[in-house]
Design a protein that fits this description.
Ubiquitin-like (UB roll), Creatine Kinase, Chain A, domain 2, Four Helix Bundle (Hemerythrin (Met), subunit A), 3 domains, 28 helices, globular, binds adenosine-5'-diphosphate, binds magnesium ion
């Protein structure tokens, strides 16, 4: 074993396990560092509390006087929690979170000093926007950007900083972040879904989208991770031969959690509790050293914030425990990668889950309405959903027989399929009393019972109905959930608006009763959206062929998938709903294409470096040992040496051949990179990186991995898969 590898392994073994004090109950810790209702009541006047609650529930503005009052209360509360600084906390289009800390501390000019924080500082800040991705927006307009308080997501104290969730927009109003379009989409969805929910219950006045994400990740000893330049820089291994044992024994999944990992999880969960992230589930995942964490679901905006915050907290806590968290979708070849299932549903202010069947036929018709409209929306905008989960890293996972393919389809289970088949037979126009009774009692009325034992969950589906929610499983583990959630909210909002129009038209023009009209429109939707429904094995080749026949898209790479974001249909959707303007969409498109290029470019550079500066020199060193050996044999045995040196000579030649291939691969890849870099159009450059640069990765890797098998373990410089994956 090389000295570097040995030291890393030794370090990992010498780690002391950090003990976690768990004397406090979780429920006592929960929300302790969040400016929640309880803190508000203690630190704010009744008026100020009401202003915040109205902003959350009704979207009303908070005026400057009240904002001042809130700021003072919030500051006092934050200081009581040990905060010295405050920051506007936002999610720029880099995919991570951003913060710039300012101290409460101010001097008064007469030698005195105070802690100060006013409504102005709470409501709006002007961070320098020039270094965040803007996709050309800043060039066309003003250079400045500002952050504005989002009162629907509560402020929290993290470490010694008061964090205020904000949106981030250009001076001219264009969104430069993930939150702004998400909030706009939630507002649209609220309007559209509330109007439809009123068909069934007049008292509904608000509908929230709910989100429960499931975060998968790898946990690797920090010393070992640090010894691999690819893991440190690209977040994944760009080479490394599979270890003899991978996940084939399935002995890790749901197995007992290693002590050091468990202590990390406990520590992490306590931090989450303080920050109000309601984490609930933890377990081992399929691959060695892979784990999952899931919370209780929340309102979607809050859930998105909590996931972003969580990823940051996970990193920090891991550092304490000498771990490195890998969020990458495919850190290791040959074993499962990580995803982030997005469980999504709709909840009314009256406490009803609109995707959960109820106790009366009418409640079940409500369920069917939202259920079928969601399917129809996914049918109409499948390409947009695919685009919303596209990233250079997720490309490695989709369709790799461990995650859904790049084809979007909907799974609903055999029982609900039967229900839809029955509904398809509904007569056109007014329903006869018998038909209505039959439908209500025997079809719609039976839904709650059939869903009770609806256990046949199809794990291969990218969008599955799981009893009382839909589960979008194609989201990558590094993703910010805002993007896929914005798309899902938007397409369902549009669908519900169309639905309401059509139902109202039937009621008005054809004089149909409300439920007759609803049945009629739902029947048409079931027919129209049939091709998106697929109950079979999503991993098989057969499905790829079948999907092609059905005319479903199968965009395998990110640049291909992203194109849907700028289609006429997508631009119209977002413009009509006022979620994004065409300028914003073009800017985002450019940012995403550019990000793709950069990711592949970085990987190409790291791979070139490792292969040329680590692998080849090591291979030559070993080859020299072999050459010395052959020379020695020749000295001793003279003419007869050939018999004894046959294998060595063979190895020497193999090594030369691999070295030659690696060198050629890197030279060609570098040229392809140069050619791609010369392309000025961001879209074309991304396509070039995808089709001309990336294909060399596999080729170079293949020969490096072969060398790993040939070269003496004693001198191999890179920590091997077995060491990364099985060190506990
Ligand atoms: P699994 O998918 O692993 O079998 P569950 O079905 O129990 O697990 O739930 C997975 C996730 O779904 C959890 O994060 C949970 O909070 C979330 N979830 C449950 N109900 C809803 C809902 N109505 N809306 C959004 N998410 C939900
Ligand atoms: Mg799940």
């Amino acid at each position: 074993m090389s000295t570097l590898r040995f030291q890393a392994l030794q370090q990992s073994q010498l780690r002391e396990i950090i003990k976690i004090d768990e004397s406090n109950r979780r429920s006592e810790l929960f929300n302790n560092n969040v400016f929640d209702q309880q803190a508000m009541r203690q630190y704010l006047t009744k008026n100020a509390c009401e202003a915040i609650n109205n902003a959350v529930e009704k979207g009303t503005q908070i005026n400057r006087d009240i904002a001042n009052e809130i700021a003072v209360g919030m500051k006092e509360w934050a200081i009581s929690k040990g905060a010295t600084h405050y920051t506007h906390w936002f999610q720029p289009l880099t995919g991570s979170t951003a913060e710039k800390h300012d101290a409460f501390f101010e001097t008064t000019g007469d030698g005195l000093s105070i802690e100060k924080f006013g409504g102005g500082q709470l409501a709006q800040q002007e961070p320098d926007a020039s270094s965040f991705p803007h996709g050309g927006i800043r060039n066309t307009f003003e250079a400045r950007g500002y952050t504005a308080w989002d009162p629907t997501s509560p402020a929290f104290v993290y470490g010694t900083t008061l964090c205020i969730p904000t949106v981030f927009v250009a001076y001219t109003g264009e969104a430069l972040d993930n939150k702004t379009p998400l909030l706009r989409s939630l507002q649209c969805l609220d309007g559209a879904a509330t109007a439809v929910a009123k068909y069934f219950d007049k008292t509904v006045s608000k509908v929230n989208a709910t989100l429960g994400w499931e975060q998968e990740y790898f946990l690797i000893d920090k010393a070992l991770a640090t010894s691999r330049p690819d893991l440190m820089i690209a977040g994944r291994t760009l080479l490394g031969h599979a270890s003899a044992k991978g996940q084939q024994l399935d002995d890790h999944y749901f197995g007992s959690i290693p002590t050091r990992v468990l202590n990390y999880m406990r520590d992490l969960e306590q931090e989450c509790m303080l920050l109000g992230i309601p984490v609930k589930t933890r377990h081992n995942e399929v691959a060695p050293n892979q784990f999952e964490l899931a919370p209780i679901f929340e309102e979607a905006n809050l859930a998105v914030d909590h996931n972003s915050l969580l990823m940051d907290v996970m990193d920090k806590v891991a550092d304490r425990h000498h771990f490195k968290v890998l969020f990458h979708e495919k850190p290791f070849a040959g074993i499962n990668g990580s995803g982030k299932h997005n469980n999504w549903s709709l909840a009314t202010n009256t406490g009803v889950n609109l995707l959960s069947p109820g106790s009366t036929p009418m409640k079940n018709l409500q369920f069917l309405t939202f259920f079928i409209n969601t399917i129809k929306a996914v049918h109409d905008y499948e390409e947009l959903i695919r685009a919303s989960i596209a990233s250079a890293s997720n490309d490695h996972r989709l369709g790799a027989n461990e995650a859904p393919p790049a084809i979007i389809s909907v799974f609903i289970g055999s029982q609900l399929t039967q229900v839809l088949d029955e509904l398809e037979k509904v007569t056109s126009g007014k329903l006869s009393p018998q038909e209505k009774t039959e439908l209500k009692l025997n079809v719609v009325g039976k839904i709650p019972e059939i869903l009770l034992d609806n256990t046949d969950r199809n794990r291969t589906s990218p969008f599955a109905f799981t009893g009382n929610k839909f589960e979008l499983r194609a989201v990558g583990s590094t993703a910010n959930c805002a993007n896929p959630m914005t798309v899902l909210n938007a397409i369902v909002a549009k669908q519900l608006i169309d639905f309401k129009k059509e139902v109202d038209a039937l009621i008005e023009k054809k004089k149909l009763k409300k439920d007759d009209a609803i049945f009629n429109i739902l029947r048409e939707y079931i027919k129209a959206s049939k091709k998106i429904r697929f109950e079979g094995d999503g991993y098989g080749d057969a499905w790829e062929k079948e999907a092609k026949k059905r005319g479903l898209s199968n965009n395998k790479t990110t640049p291909e998938a992203l194109k849907a974001n700028l289609s006429k249909k997508s631009v119209e959707l977002f413009e009509n709903l006022e979620i994004l303007t065409s300028v914003e969409m073009e800017a985002r498109y450019e940012i995403q294409m550019e990000e793709y290029t950069m990711k592949v470019q970085i990987e190409g550079r790291v791979l070139g470096d490792i292969a040329r500066n680590h692998v080849i020199p090591t291979a030559i060193k070993y080859q020299n040992i072999l050459i010395e050996n052959v020379k020695g044999l020749k000295d001793i045995y003279e003419k007869d040496y050939m018999k004894l040196a046959k294998e060595q000579l063979n190895l020497i030649e193999q090594i030369s051949s691999h070295i030659e291939n690696i060198n050629q691969g890197i030279t060609d890849m570098t040229q392809a990179r140069k050619d791609s870099n010369a392309i000025s159009n961001a879209e074309k450059r991304a396509f070039s990186y995808c089709n001309k640069v990336k294909p060399y990765f596999e080729e170079i890797r293949y020969h490096c991995d072969k060398l790993e098998l040939l070269v003496d373990d004693e001198i191999w410089p890179l920590t091997k898969y077995r060491e990364l994956l099985f060190t506990k």
